[in-house]
Sequence to fold (162 residues):
Amino acid sequence: MTQKLLAIAYAYGSKPNPLEQEIIGALQGKAKELAIIREGRYTRSQDIEKCLQPGLNDLGFIRSATVRHVAGLFATWSDFEIDFFHPELKVAIEVEKGKHFNLWRNLVKFCESPLVEHGVLLVPYQRTGLNGSEFIFSNMMDSLKNVEALYGKVSSVLCFGY
Fold:
């Protein structure tokens, strides 16, 4: 049986992400590996980034983009980094692996960059631990529906649960 992405949804969208289908294809092609990394006890978001890097590079994304790599991405003094950034189509991808991550910092990065038009969040669909399953994707989507003012500088925030 082929592993599939578990969830795809817009948290916000005044315009569709121009690379939506291409990103879906890149993620779907690595769905089995993503599931293994998601369930790995000692794996990190960087492991997911490495897994996705060849496919996303083929689409024109730069990994670990900062102001040193992309002029004007953030203020010159900023230490922000975007996991993957497509400079021509202004798409930023933030990858998360752990049970605890800073969703709000990711949204701030999207809004702080004058170059980001479309944000993408890639998070675990769920994690199973000692206390049972935690549905990370649905919890994140519930949180994101309450912050419409944060979306003022972006055209979309597309979310994937792997």
Q: What stands out?
A: The chain has a mean pLDDT of 90. The longest strand covers residues 7-13. The radius of gyration is 15 Å. Residues 80 and 105 are 9 Å apart (CA to CA).
